[in-house]
Write a structure and sequence with these properties.
- Helix content is 37%, strand content 22%.
- It is an alpha/beta fold.
- The protein has 4 domains: 196 residues, Pyruvate-ferredoxin oxidoreductase, PFOR, domain III (Pyruvate-ferredoxin Oxidoreductase, domain 3, 3-Layer(aba) Sandwich), CATH 3.40.920; 172 residues, Thiamin diphosphate (ThDP)-binding fold, Pyr/PP domains (Rossmann fold); 66 residues, no CATH class; 105 residues, 3-Layer(aba) Sandwich (Rossmann fold), CATH 3.40.50.920.
- The strands form 5 sheets. It has an 8-stranded mixed β-sheet. A 7-stranded mixed β-sheet has the order 11-10-12-13-15-14-22, sandwiched between helices.
- Helix 18 links the parallel strand 23 and strand 24.
- Helix 1 packs parallel to helix 4 and helix 16 packs across helix 19.
- The radius of gyration is 26 Å and the shape is globular.
- The chain starts with 7 loop residues before the first strand and ends with a helix.
Length: 572
């Protein structure tokens, strides 16, 4: 029985999903494929979801290839490459009659109008190694997009440059074999992909959230990192460890998170600029060290990469479930700042900003990210310029130096040991101006007032939220962090003249400039990747204002553009 061709035309933006078992090399394909698309002049972004296992299961990566910069997660799949038997079932709710499904002939025998079978594994075995099936897929996809096999081979040779010559040549042969099958699929589907190419994109960066956080720390002056590996924060640790000599950073994999934060505090005390990077379970162990930072008025920068809890939860999935943890962790009362980037550019800028903020006001500063944002890749023309206007340098101490000298502002001059003639005495017990232990009630009260005064100072430097959409709005979406891209793209699709979006890059201290925007709206919708509506609770506590509607998601997946359109507009 012959299969009639089904014409497919994709305009401006194509969503390609690769699905396969852990251990099949999906991430390698993702990395090379992004470089191929960028080299061809396409905007590209990639998001992934993967299981907490070394082998088996089904992992996916979604690559958006577009004529403009779009990076939000989509439910829609235009092209699915299913390399394992369970892949189609894994994403079945995201498939449509327009989806082109490419299957591995070895694991899926059926063909049809929407299914094209390719002997990925057979070709790989013929070339001597099953893992080459991924390279076959690269050649196949290149043909679909009208990218020549030669362009793919250039990228493959570059990626495998350190491999043996025989391995490189087999990968190049795999590309050509896959490319030939891709040409057959183009003919079958009468496929036309109409995505405008831009030669300038070839010069752009491909950067991930992990890399942006690490580079932001470098720009912020970070010279010491202490961490215990915990997904999804580990990418920051490994990137800085790989480039420690280039950046002049000491990187220490501590024995646990308790040691990590105390090492960080030791670095700041000695004049360093330290970062700790961790996830929720790891940060739970750091809470005593956080309280110590509050007591000794030490700067501290904490990258808290969220994942679903409680306990181990879903260790490789995404959620915004640790806002309350960052707000309330640590015993006693002391000021802090919480920055909530939602884009790769903001991850870079705000991580750098955090160091100056922590140094100037001698407080812990959190950068709150999550798996969805950290594992995001995208093309960028360049990283933004970072302001360092609030950086501060330790003072050279005099013989009568007092670490906690009372001042009108509440900020004491911060000295470091060996820089000057004074003794820099700090203590976790309540202390007097010199840093010596005291139980005097009047001194205790004065010290608490002194520390808490920093909250008002932090308000002077708080980052204002950014408004998108209609200026004369009636309905207002409020959100923080990684929900940004999906919300913004949904808003752009709908073009609702009554709707606007207020994006919070900092949630604490709460930016007072947000209050007039919220009061102006007749309806306020809060969107969060958690079950409790933690940000709406913070809003109510800080301002007395309540939201009218919460859109919450907490199954371990990010919001898609399509589901936000449904929940914001179609269910009104």
């Amino acid at each position: 029985m012959s299969i009639m061709p089904v014409k497919r035309i994709f305009h401006h933006d194509v969503s390609v999903v690769l699905a396969g078992e852990a251990g099949q090399g999906i991430e390698t394909v993702e990395q090379i494929l992004m470089r191929i698309f960028k080299s061809a002049g396409y905007h590209v972004s990639a998001t992934k979801e993967y299981m907490s296992r070394v082998r088996g299961g089904t992992n996916t990566t979604e690559i958006r290839v577009s004529s403009r910069a779009v990076v939000a997660f989509l439910d829609r799949i235009d092209v699915l490459v299913a390399l394992d038997p369970g892949a189609i079932d894994h994403v079945k709710d995201r498939l449509s009659p327009k989806t082109i499904i490419i299957v591995n002939e070895e694991s899926h025998k059926e063909e049809g109008r929407d299914i094209f079978s390719v002997p990925f594994s057979k070709i790989a075995w013929e070339l001597g190694n099953r893992i080459l099936s991924n390279t076959v897929a690269l050649g196949f996809l290149a043909a679909l997009f009208g990218i020549s096999a030669e362009e793919v081979i250039v990228q493959v040779r570059s990626s495998f440059a350190k491999k043996e010559a025989d391995i490189i040549e087999k990968n190049c042969l795999a590309v050509q074999r896959g490319f030939n099958f891709g040409l057959q699929a183009v003919d079958r589907y009468q496929l036309t992909i109409q995505i405008e190419r831009n030669a300038d994109i070839k010069k752009q960066l491909i950067i991930s959230g992990h890399e942006a956080a690490a580079l932001g720390a470098v720009v912020g002056g970070c010279n010491f990192l202490a961490s215990y590996p915990m997904s999804p924060s580990t990418g920051v640790l490994t990137f800085l460890a790989q480039h420690a000599d280039e950046f002049g950073i000491v990187v220490e994999q501590a024995e646990d998170e308790i040691a990590a934060i105390n090492m960080g505090l030791g670095s700041w005390y000695a004049g360093g600029r330290a970062l700790v990077t961790t996830s929720g379970g790891g940060f739970a162990l750091m809470s005593e060290g956080l309280s110590l930072a509050g007591a000794i008025e030490s700067p501290m920068v904490i990258h808290l990469a969220q994942r679903p809890g409680p306990a181990t939860g879903l260790p490789t999935r995404t959620e915004q479930g640790d806002l309350d943890l960052a707000l309330y962790a640590g015993h006693g009362e002391f000021p802090r700042a919480i920055l909530t980037p939602g884009t790769i550019e903001d991850v870079f800028v705000l991580t750098a900003w955090a160091f100056g903020l922590a140094d100037r006001y001698q407080v812990p500063v959190f950068i709150l990210t999550d798996q969805g944002l950290l594992d995001l890749y995208q093309t960028l023309a360049e990283l933004p310029v970072v302001s360092t206007s609030i950086s501060n340098e330790p003072v050279q101490t005099e013989p009568d130096y007092k670490r906690y000298r009372f001042t009108q502002s509440g900020l004491s001059p911060r000295g470091i040991p060996g820089f000057g003639q004074g003794i820099v005495c700090v203590d976790s017990d309540e202390h007097d101006e010199s840093g010596h232990i005291t139980e005097d009630g009047a001194v205790r009260r004065a010290m608490v007032d002194k520390r808490m005064k920093k909250h008002e100072l932090l308000l002077e430097k708080v980052l204002a939220p950014v408004l998108y959409g209609a200026k004369d709005y009636k309905k207002l979406i409020i959100a923080w962090g990684s929900t940004f891209h999906a919300i913004l793209e949904a808003l752009e699709l709908q073009k609702d003249p009554d709707m606007a979006f207020l994006y919070f890059r900092q949630v604490y201290p709460f930016p007072e400039t947000a209050i007039p925007f919220i009061k102006k709206a007749k309806e306020v919708i809060c969107i969060e990747n958690n079950a409790g509506g933690q940000f709406s609770g913070l809003l109510r506590r800080e301002t007395g204002l309540s939201v009218h509607k919460k859109i919450l998601k907490y199954n371990g997946a990010p919001f898609s553009v399509e589901e936000l359109v449904r929940q914001i507009w179609e269910q009104e």
